[in-house]
Amino acid sequence: MRVAGGQGFWGDWLEAPYRQVTGGPVDYLMMDYLAEVTMSILQKQKSRDPARGYATDFVTQMERILPTIVERGIKVTANAGGVNPRACAMAVAAVARKLGLNRKLTIGVVTGDDLLGRLNGLIARGHDLMNLDTRRPLHDVRDRVLSANAYLGAAPVVEALQRGAQVVITGRVTDTGLTLGPLMHAFGWPADAWDQIAAGTVAGHIIECGAQCSGGNCLHDWNRIPDLANVGYPIVEARADGSFDIVKHPHTGGRIDIASVTEQLVYEMGDPRAYITPDGVADFTTIQLHQVSKDRVRVSGVRGKPATDKLKVSVAYFYGYKAVGTLVYAWPDALEKAKAADRILRHRLDDLGLKFEAIHTEFVGADATHGPLALKDVDITAIPEVQLRVGVRARDEAPVDRFTREIAPLILNGPPSVTGFAGGRPKPEEIVAYWPALLDKRMVQPSVELIEA
Amino acid sequence: MKRQRRRLVDIAHARSGDKGDTANIGLIALKPKDYPLLVKQVTAARVARHFKGMIKGPVERFELPNLYALNFLLHGALDGGGTISLKTDAQGKVFSTALLRMEIEVKK
C-alpha cells in the first residue's frame, strides 16, 4: 500500500506528480494545494467567475497523468478544489473526455467546508468564531470577511473512495487527511482506531510538503545530499498495523534518512504531544524512527488520542495595505549608507505627516534574517553591498501609496553608491489576513458527490 | 574535565516554520549523545534572551527525546505573521538558523 506525495503546495514542482506515477509502483497520489491565503484568492476568482475558484494547475497536471493513472488504477486525492471543488471536477472530467477516457473515470467531490454563506447564521446562533490568537469575536471583522472554511478531515475522502471514486477532489480538507483517507480506506481502519489514525496523520505530515522530507530544504549535511536536480518525492509504504516506511522511487536524487525525516516532523510543530486534526490527536513524542536501508526510514510506535469535538476554521479578511521598497548600497561603508538612507526616508515620511501601523527596515546582507545576532559576527566594513529594504503597513491606501514615491528620489538626493532600482516604484498591495478559529463539529456536514467523466 | 564553548551549529541541525505570528524552531541533536546537553543548556529562558529585541512574546519549549529534538515556540516573532508581516522572513523559515549561532558549553 503506497501513497505518493506529488505536490507540497500550489506552485510546487510541475514534474513531480508525473514522476511519482511513472517512476515505480504506487497505489495513491496525494496532492496538497491549499495554504491559508490561497482560499481567499480563490474566493475572489470565484466571485468574478462562478466557474473558477480552484487550483487550475491541478487540471493541467491531471491531463498529463490521467492516461497513466487510469491504466494502472492509481487513485488520486487532492484538495485542489479550493472554494469550487465541483467546477474543478467538471474541468477534470472534460479533460478525461478529451483524452478518450469517457466512462473510465469516477470523480469524487468533497464539499461542506465552505462557511462563507453561513457565517451570519452561525454567529446568530452563538458561534462567535473567536480568534484563537487575539481572543476577539469574528464580529469585529465580519464586514471584511473574504472566505471562511472549516478544515475537514479524512472521513469524506474515505467515503468517496468507498463509493468508487478514483480521483477525489476536495475543498479545505486537511493536508494530512489526504494521506490518512487512503490508509483508512485500504486497511479498513475504523474512525476510532486512534493509534492508527495518529500514525496515518504522521505519515501525512511527513509527505505533505513534498520533497521537504526527502532532501529538499534539509540543513543536515545539505551540500552532500545527492542530485537534488532529480529529487525523488516521498512515498509512504504503509502496513495495516499503522507502521510505515518513507521511501522514494529508485534512480531519483535527494535523501531519506532520520535527519531529513526528523526535520520535516518538527516543521510547523506546536505542542508535540497534541498534533490536533479533525480525525484525532497524534502524540509526536511516541514516534520511533529507524533507518532500515538506504533511503528507507521506518516509522512506528505512534500513539494517538480521541478527536476533539471542534473543527478548525480558517477565515480570511481584508486587513489593509502594505508596500516594500528596496535600494542597494555598495562598498565602501555599504551598511552605513543604507542606514543613513533609512534615516532620511523616515524623516521625510514624518515631515509628510503620514501615519502607518508599522514601518519595518531591514538591511539585507547584514541583518534581515538574524537581526542583531548577525552583526556581532561580521566585519561590517568589509560587506560589499547591502540592500535597504523598507516596508510600511496602513489601514488606508493613501499613506502607503505616498510612501512608494519616496524611494526613487533617494537615488539622486540621498547617500551615494546606490543602485538596484530597475524594478521601478513599488506597488501598494492589499493585505488579506488570516483569522484562526474553532467551531463545534456538529455545525459542519461534509458532503460527497460522484461525477462520471 | 575541561570545558569549551561550541556553537549549536556544530552540535545540532534545525528547521522552523510558522503558525500565525508564532515561529517554531525544531532543534535536533546531530548525535543522540549530545541531546542531554541541549536539554540542559538550551532552555526556554536562554532562547528568549538569545532573541531579545527580535521577538515580542514569550518562548515555550517542548521535549521530544524520541527524536533527540527540542521544539521551541517563539510568540510574537513575525511582525504579525503571514501576509501582514513586512519581514523578509515573514513565515519564520530561517529563524532556526539564527538559533544555531548560540554557544553552549561542552566537554573538551
Number of strands of chain B: 6
Main β sheet profile of chain B = 4 strands, antiparallel
Query: What would the average pLDDT of chain B be, to the nearest integer?
Result: 96
Percent range for helical residues of chain A?
25-40%
Find the structural class of chain A using helix and strand composition: alpha+beta
Q: What is the number of domains of chain B?
A: 1
Strand content of chain B: 35-45%
Oligomer: heterodimer
**CATH topology type of chain B:** Alpha-Beta Plaits
Describe the global form of chain A. Answer: globular
Euclidean distance between termini CA atoms of chain B: 7 Å
Profile the largest sheet of chain A: 10 strands, mixed
- Rg of chain B: 14 Å
| Domain tally of chain A | 2
H/I helix tally of chain A:
13
- Count every beta strand of chain A, where a strand is a DSSP E run of 2 or more residues: 19
Given the C-alpha coordinates, what overall shape of chain B results? elongated
Number of helices of chain B: 3
